[in-house]
Amino acid sequence: MVTLAGFVIFTLMTNIPLFLRHILRLDTINLGLLGALPYGTMFLSMVLTSCLSDHVIHLNYLTTTQTRKLMINIGAIVAAGSLIAVPHVGCSHRFVIALMSTGICGIGVTFSGIFVNAQDLAPRFNGTVFAVGNCLSVASGFIGPIVVGFITEDQTDPKGWRVVFYTTAVLSLVGAFFFQLFGSGEVQAWALSPDERESKVNYEYVHDKDKSRDGDPTKTRV
Description:
mainly alpha
């Protein structure tokens, strides 16, 4: 999931200026201003949805796993829908920038589920797990521009850019689907210390024993 997210974000980051230059014919000043706008919305979405996720988990509205999956699914759907629509609004730079801002904002929403997931899965090895995942994510960023270069050999041809936006949209959905099937927000057994592992076994034993006795599971830890 991190690898696909990295591919999408780095592909857009390195190639949006080219799209704005060759397809929308923006000058240098407008290119700089409008090209930065989507990433401002991404910053806001990352901060706001991260706070929202913590609030939802703290109040026990959803579990950690459910919250991470919800944020990733929402973000991927918003991003994919917006990116697919970009090639179909013509040369109106206002609509294009609005859709790109919405799409990259969606990617920012997924970050509140992706980048904190290492802490969820392995608090003791958070740095190592995140470093490995981020390495794969950044490495995929080298591939994106190369792929776009092959697809958009003529960078003034909208057809090639249409394929680029479709591809990034599909990859966003594939990553969300993969996380929906296999993702988790619970601490993994291999990340527990021996004492934590023993405590978990004892807790599960008492939990199952109480449940079988009166059907009312307790939360008592031992």
